[in-house]
Amino acid sequence: MSRSQYILKKFGWALLTIALVLILNFFLFRVLPGDPARAGVHDPRLKKESIEAIRVRYGLDKPVINCFETLNPVKVGSCSVNPLDTQFFIYMKNLLSGELGISYHNNRPVATILAERLWNTILLIGAGQILSIIVGAFFGMLAAWKARTSIDYGALATSLVVWSLPTFWLGIILLFWGSANGLPIGGKATPGLSSYPLWEQWKDIGRHMILPTLTYTLVYMGEYMLIMRSSLLDVLSEDYILTAKAKGLGIFQILRDHALKNAMLPLVTIIAINLGFTVAGAVQIETVFSWPGLGGAVFEAVNRRDFPVLQGAFLLITVTVILANLIADLMYSYLDPRIQAE
Amino acid sequence: MEILTQKNAAPPSSNYLLEFWRKFQRNRMGLVGLGMLTAIILVAVFAPLIAPHVPGSSLTIGVSDIYKPPSAEHLFGTDDAGADVFSNFIHGARVSLTVGFFAAFISIFIGGLLGIVAGFFGGRVENFIMRFTDVMLVIPELPLMVVIIALTKPSLLNIIFVIGLLGWTTTARMVRSQTLAVKSRKFVLRARAIGSGKAHIIRRHILPLVMPILVVQAVLVVSLAVLNESTLSFLGLGDPTTLSWGQMLNYAFGRGAMSTGAWWALVFPGFGIVWVVLGLTLLGQGLEQVFNPRLDTHHLMPGRPVVTSEAGVKPVKPGTLLDVQNLSINYVTEGKPPARAVENISFTLKEGELLGLVGESGCGKTTLMLALLRLLPSAGQIVGGKVFFSGRDLTALGEEEMNEVRWSGISIVFQGAMNALNPVRTVGDQIAEAIIQHVPTFPRDKISARVTELLDLVGIAADHKDHFPHQYSGGMRQRAMIAMALACNPQVIIADEPTTALDVMIQAQILELLDELRRKLGLAVVFVTHDLGIVAEMCDHVLVMYGGVTAEYADVDIIYNEPRHPYTQELLKAFPDLTKPKKKLSSIPGYPPRLDALPAGCRFAPRCPAAFERCHIEEPALHRIGANGHLASCHLIAEKR
Amino acid sequence: MNQEFLEVRGLKKYFEAGRPGLFSKDARKVHAVDGVDLTLRRSEVIALVGESGCGKSTLALLLMGLEDPTEGAVKFEGMDITHLNDSQRKKKELRRKIQMVFQDPYESLNPTQTIEEIITEPLLVHGMANTPDRDERVKKALEDAGLKPAEVYLDRYPHELSGGQRQRVVVAAALVLEPEIILADEPVSMLDVSIRAEIINLLAELRITRQIAVIFITHDLGSVGFFADRVAVMYLGRIVEVGTMLEVLENPKHPYTKALISVIPVPNPRLRHERIILQGETPNPINIPSGCRFHPRCPVAIATCKASDPPMVVVNKSHQAACLLLVK
Q1: Which of A109, B22, B545, C278 satisfies CB 3.0 to 4.6 Å to B359 for a cystine?
Q2: How far is CA A329 from CA A225, A265, C218, C251, in A?
Q3: CB < 8 Å to C219, chain B
Q4: Distance in angstroms (rounded) separating the CA atoms of residues B408 and B437
């Protein structure tokens, strides 16, 4: 299989997964008991007709899909309805035109609410991932190279401990520490800075990012450190390292030219596999630090029973993770020449 | 590493589980983890006895009882409802552990089942399961849990099922790859060949070997489930009727513990989670280390200092390229007497000479060769003797100076060329690297031409230059290694079993190539092998090693036609000779000695057909026989005199 | 005594080289075994010799019924066993009568089983484990395989034994079922030369004491020594020469056999001789060369070799070779 075929295959696979997630997302919210129409409309002032009007407005009076009127409780309906006139196709059509529904909470379009939050989350996860990978990989390398020394044992103990910390709890602890040291402890920016020069605003955002990013980095660097350590240990006991040594290369040359790239491969795989899990960290950190991101949106939507936002946020998170996964796969194919031989 | 292959005389173990426990006991990380876990399980089981107050109930409802700092009465203070945090903490352990273990059980069951089915049956079943797993893996777990629990009722049972039903993906992946690995091993094929059915094979052959992975994975999954439960509870999705640690944190965080500075309400419940997860993590790491013991060493660890003395050093004769004098090497392990891997080996190598180094595996051949280039693993130490190369004493050189000698003076071709070449760099690039390292002035634009020339010399077409090692066949890789070894015009090439594992015809091609290069380029070659036939075809001198010492060292003709050491004689008898149809093959009974448990007297005595009393008591000296440098270490030679 | 009891006719096995999919155009085939004829007599030893990739291991798997042949027939004691599945083979006692020994003794023993469990397992599978003489059988198999006294080994695990001992355990696990044929796939190539003779002598002894026929598969003709009665040389999925051992060694007819014999090392420097070293490696069995499949590497090929596939030529009653130079 050539590289272009590999890439095509990965692209196809990502698209297929996204399609599956769209379908899952639709049915999840119809099969499980939280009927969007019932849950969203609990204003006692509303009369039955008004509720019906709202249902019509959200298209919830239509059958869910051909043959099924509703799925919870399961009510079989006519199979001969125009498929384009079912909730499923309306949902798909709306999705394709970038419409995610309207928030029950504040009646704003979900897409608008989530769009700005998506970038905040990417900013947080991006900064956290990059930092934790750099720090984790560096100490992992150091630990492997200096295996069975106090440096190694120290790094190992640290990584196991930070790995065991619940993200939200570490966030809380850092919140205590941060507030004692005068760091901003919530939100993304200090209110009322919009008239300040751009540079000042950025600096402010940067200060707000310190604690969330620190939490993120600490939690995830442990695993990267462990992976890097064990994968570099494997590489360093390979015969080709002995060959490199026999060739008269210095230790740093060997590390740079023969060990790093090889040891990075398992790390990249883990980063790709982990993307889904790192979102969990974002949800917790955004909740603790009131960071206005997608994870925070999930938390708020759950508490307000705002299902369109929950549905939209879940969809956006999943699709982002799938795309990030695709990028990791493509990176891997450039790192490992053997991928074509598969 | 030859020393590690020596495990023949291990004491019989009575039971697999007992054996495992013995190893586990020596693993400190695992023991600490097990201790932490046992402690918290005891706390959970005996919670009603330990907790001073009924959980959740506040004693008196008064403002003064809320968020009281830790005191003798309330060890961990009180919470937002005036309840005793310590009591809640003790009872919280029950909830967290219950959810953790039950959810993990579901995950491990599903993951293990799907993994084994996918791995064992393969084909469409595997494809379907693994595609499904891939989709599940890429969907972020926590948000999905949040969505499902938000849509259903947040009860303990729901939480257990949601965590359990979503947490199996990594287990399925790992179990599948382990099943595949086990299935590809020959004993599974052999089980089929004797008529075992599928169920029998899974039960008797697959499961026992997948179990270790499953156990380690189970420990990990429990810890993840505990973390997930606490996170869900913290996000307000926990069962409101039970008080888990996450739930406690949810209430404290949501109800002003931060602003009132009530750190105790936030710190202690989290500490419980950390305790459980850390205990499980340590236990998992410990188990992993016991199941998959890894080498403690790697090639970049600093070596041990060389110990030599100037006493008894003879001057190097002119015309000698490599002069090894009384070289001794030990393997040092903490707390054990050193293993005498190589002792008092001497040989010389002249320009253009081909020396064969022969012996069974584990007799110290590779150790000796690595020591010449000072490439010993970190446990290896030169404890005596000298290595002179072109008049320089290699045992006295620093690492920097040694790097200059490596490859440009002496280069080495290793046994398995697949592993000796870096898989992610092209072959041409790896050859060029050696040139750039040792001839920094080499014009950059000519390097490519030089690499082509080298490949051509070993019979590889130039268009393979930019290929990766995996695109080469086994024979081509070994040729590429030879081309690389020639890159800096060395005077000596060490070929360490370069043709083992290759087909006879490819073997013949490689040998022919080495012989031709030696004539063309005037190289001196040390050829290491366990195959006497190969040596006879091309060597000038032969050094037969046994258990780390010289058995016999002589001209090739003497070795084959007038061998004096019984070991050489026995080796020759074991070798099939198609020119003598009536000769019955004989093997040498027994095994080479373990280097950490050498027999007293002659090291070959336990296997020697001619051994007599003196052989078991006294180590024989190296006797000189005749005038042409024939040496053998056997008491028989002295007795006959 | 010399009745032909295993008979192979025109046996072929093609593997798909990559499935035809969305991106790869055609399904290419690996011609692993491409028309093999072979007979084995009772208590006869045949050496099957060829380089890696010549299909000798696949042939063994076909004979064992561990792979399903694409074409051709295998007959055992007159019964057609070509396409029998696992359970039919077990029912017809084939899984008892034909046993296999693999190359790597480290890989062919389950590390979690004791030697006793390993030797008892075949009896268990064949419902022979509940007889009172079970322990006797197990001990006898071990001692016949040269592991004496058997008691010392029963409670041990494979990792506590040496390579040679492990290979003996594999042989014992085969012997316990009292087989009629042992297929040995490179049984000594992972072992040191000094202990290879151990295993070969063991197999030689068994054919005498137990009348077991042996198919000895190897890439190194030299390692078989004179233990085999007949030798069959395989190249790219086909047998190119077959004959009695002495006959083939002394008077090889096929140029490939000649080359193989010439590169066998002779442990005597006084007998150094000219070797015929074939250039290149065995071609990829996906693209079999036209005409004689050996012609691209053949040192004596003539023009017609490119065009026509040589038939098996009878040299004498006990010696055949497939070479156009022999067609007169």
Answers
A1: B545
A2: 21, 11, 42, 59
A3: 503-504
A4: 9
| Full residue range of the structural domain in which residue C59 is found | 4-18+29-326
| CB count in 10 Å sphere of residue B489 | 14
φ, ψ for residue A4 (rounded to 5)?
-65, -35
Is residue B146 a part of any domain in this protein? yes
Which subunits count as partners of chain A given 3+ CB pairs below 8 Å? B, C
- Best C19, C121, C194 residue to mutate vs chain B (most B CBs within 10 Å): C194
Taking the CA of residue A169 and the nearest CA in chain B, the distance in Å comes to 6
Q: Is residue C23 part of a domain?
A: no
Window from A326-340, B550-564, C16-30 with minimum mean pLDDT: C16-30
Asked, for residue B19, whether it belongs to a domain, the answer is no
pLDDT tier, B64 (very low <50, low <70, confident <90, very high otherwise):
low
- Cα B353–B355–B360 angle (5° rounding)? 170
CA atoms of B325 and B312, how far apart (whole Å)? 9
pLDDT tens column, B131-185: 899 888 888 888 899 888 888 878 899 999 999 999 999 999 999 999 999 999 9
Residue of A nearest to C23 (CA): A5
How many domains, chain C? 1
- Asked whether the beta carbons of residue B570 and residue C194 sit closer than 8 angstroms, the reply is yes
Q: Which of residues 558-617 of B touch C (CB under 8 A)?
A: 560-561, 570-572, 574-579, 581-582, 584-588, 591
| B449 within domain boundaries | yes
Upper half-sphere CA count for residue C320 (Cβ side, 13 Å) = 15
Does the beta carbon of B281 lie under 8 angstroms from any beta carbon of chain A?
Answer: yes
User: Is C309 within 8 Å of chain B by CB?
Assistant: no
Q: In this predicted model, what pLDDT tens digit does every residue of A116-169 receive, in sequence order?
A: 889 999 999 999 999 999 999 999 999 999 988 899 999 999 999 999 999 999
CA distance B557 to chain A (A): 33
In the predicted structure, residue A21 carries a pLDDT above the cut 50 = yes
Structural domain count, chain B: 2
Assess if residue C308 is contained within a domain: yes
Is C214 domain-assigned? yes
The reply to whether the predicted model has a pTM over 0.90 is: no
Chain B residues 7-36 with CB within 8 Å of chain C: 7-8, 10, 12-14, 16
> Can you give the residue range of the structural domain that contains B190?
65-282
As for the ipTM of the complex, it is 0.90
pLDDT of residue A35: 53
A·C CB contacts under 8 A: 6
Q: How many angstroms separate the CA of residue B589 from the nearest CA in chain C?
A: 8
CATH number for the domain spanning C313: value is 3.40.50.300
Strand order in the sheet with B623-625: B410-413, B492-496, B524-529, B354-358, B541-546, B549-555, B630-632, B623-625
Give residue for tokens 């196709």: A89
- CATH code of the domain in which B96 resides: 1.10.3720.10
- Is the pLDDT assigned to residue B1 strictly greater than 70? no
**Looking at the domain assignment, is residue C24 inside a domain?**
no
Our CA dihedral for A108, A109, A112, A115, rounded to 10 degrees, sits at 120
* Residue B460 within any structural domain of the chain: yes
